[in-house]
Amino acid sequence: MVTFKLPLPMLLLFLLLNIFVCSSEVLYIPVTKDASTLEYTIEVGQRTPLIPIKLLINLGGRSLWVDCDKGYKSSTYKPAVCNSTQCTFSKSHACGDCIFKPQVQPGCSNNTCYIWGENPLINSFHDRAELAEDVLTIGSTPGVPLTWPRFIFSCLLDQDMMRQFANGVTGVAGFGRESPVSIPNQLALDSRFTKKFGICLSSSTQSRGVIFIGSGPYSVYNPKKIDISNDILYTKLIANTRGGFVTSEEYYIQVSSIRIAGQDIPLNKTLLSINKKNGVAGTRISTATPFTILHTTIYDAFKTAFIKALPKNVTIVEPPMKPYGLCFSSKNIKSSNVGPDVPVIDFVLHKPSAFWRLYGTNSVVQVSKDVMCLAFVGQDQTWEPSIVIGGHQMEENLLVFDLVRRNIGFSSSLKLQQASCSKYDNTIPV
Ligand SMILES: *[C@@H]1O[C@H](CO)[C@@H](O)[C@H](O)[C@H]1NC(C)=O
Ligand SMILES: *[C@@H]1O[C@H](CO)[C@@H](O)[C@H](O)[C@H]1NC(C)=O
Ligand SMILES: *[C@@H]1O[C@H](CO)[C@@H](O)[C@H](O)[C@H]1NC(C)=O
Ligand SMILES: *[C@@H]1O[C@H](CO)[C@@H](O)[C@H](O)[C@H]1NC(C)=O
Q: Where is the signal peptide (predicted)?
């Protein structure tokens, strides 16, 4: 295996030179939905020799980190020496020696700097993620895999940080907004890609969705090749600097009201904005949450309005399982091209005419032959965002995160265009 041993500034220069030889491109990273945990994962290749690594997607994560405790073996692993360019570039907060293991190993090197590692499933942070570099292969520009000789990532040893990972997952793929070493920010060092990415989650555990990295087009087939990034409603990306390191990488938007079947539901508007003192409340987007979470008082109003808007001949039933809070007989629910014909839900953004519309396919789940449940969860969110938009609501929609213009775009259901996240363009260009 040939590796480049260029110092970082030269590597940057080398990448900048690409600007003259390459036009803008899009990197496609396939996304799998785990059937038992509903976690969204990607697979990358890492190390020398190269091995496949399964990673949980964390939108608000600062780096790509892996479990280094279970025999990390690589001839190209290089920990970041204290005060090196890598440490400064990654905004490392600390530096130290290996004190937790009898001898040094990847993840426990001497004179090495650390960044924060995080597991969004358990809301845990760790201050000793060892910064390092190694070979990484990630996604492909249609047909051509991308190899990165010295990708900066971090290494964790603490098994507590691996809790609740789906089977086979051994790390986290961070797509954070600010961190220079998050996946979109680091890949943007390659001038073919801009600091913009699109997430298109598949609703199926059988066929993979995709993350697009770069300015576009984001192509899928319906069966004609179409650019799904064309017809997108954008709203401002909100930085939550009040919550400190817990929220600094996260993606927030301003939801100004929620409509069910066209009617605004009564809400305490204080909960919809980020608290300027402590950074709680507001609306965050998270692929690590299977169903959108609503603050209990929002959920109660939401549920009441949804029941009221259902056809009168639909009977409410006791939720047969967690985490559902509202279930009903699906006998009298018709179906449509965008799923069960239930009341539409609009998340109204910066102005009344700007809303993200959710149809049955994104708002309910069929839990048994005759029972359907609302795919939203009510929870005590006193010290958390009031709304956490989760995976089920994003499936078969394109969400675009533009880190340069600082905005977030929503497509609504691709089913309206007879398209799907799993029918992406992954062919070799002719
Ligand atoms: C490395 O940087 C830290 C601050 O980030 C400083 O306290 C320390 O003295 C530096 N060490 C060396 C060897 O330059
Ligand atoms: C690493 O650092 C520890 C603690 O400072 C020291 O005891 C150990 O000998 C060092 N190991 C190597 C291989 O330098
Ligand atoms: C609205 O929510 C805020 C934050 O939880 C709370 O302090 C306030 O009392 C609530 N207002 C009403 C009218 O319930
Ligand atoms: C249930 O009500 C809806 C709307 O009110 C109506 O269109 C549908 O025909 C009814 N279904 C049955 C089986 O009565």
A: 1-24
DSSP-assigned letter for residue 376: E
Q: Would you call the peptide bond into 79 cis, given omega within 30 degrees of 0 as the criterion?
A: no
Instruction: Please name the residue whose Cα sits nearest to atom 4 of ligand 4.
Output: 311
Angle at 288 between CA 94 and CA 414, to 5 degrees: 130
According to DSSP, the residues that pair with 316 across neighbouring strands are: 328
What pLDDT is attached to residue 24?
79
CA angle 373, 377, 379 (to 5 degrees): 150
SS3 417: helix
346, 334, 354, 357: which is closest to 305 by C-alpha? 346
Q: Whose CA is nearest to atom 10 of ligand 1?
A: 83
Asked if residue 170 lies in contact with residue 119, where contact means CB atoms within 8 angstroms, the answer is no
Domains defined for the chain, CATH in brackets: 18-193 (2.40.70.10), 221-417 (2.40.70.10)
C-alpha to C-alpha distance for 426 and 319, rounded to whole angstroms: 41
Backbone phi, then psi, for 209, in 5-degree steps?
-90, -160
Pocket test for ligand 3, best of 267, 270, 278, 297 (most atoms within 8 A of CB): 270
What distance in angstroms lies between residue 103's CA and the mean position of ligand 2's atoms?
8
User: Which amino acid residue places its CA nearest to atom 4 of ligand 2?
Assistant: 97
Q: What stretches in the chain show pLDDT beneath 70?
A: 1-23, 426-430
Q: CB count, 10 Å around CB of 240? A: 23
pLDDT of residue 23: 53
Contact of 110 with 394, CB cutoff 8 Å: no
Q: How far apart are CA 409 and CA 228, in angstroms?
A: 11
pTM above 0.85, yes or no: yes
Mean pLDDT score of the chain = 93
Give the closest residue to 61 by CA, choosing from 330, 245, 313. 245
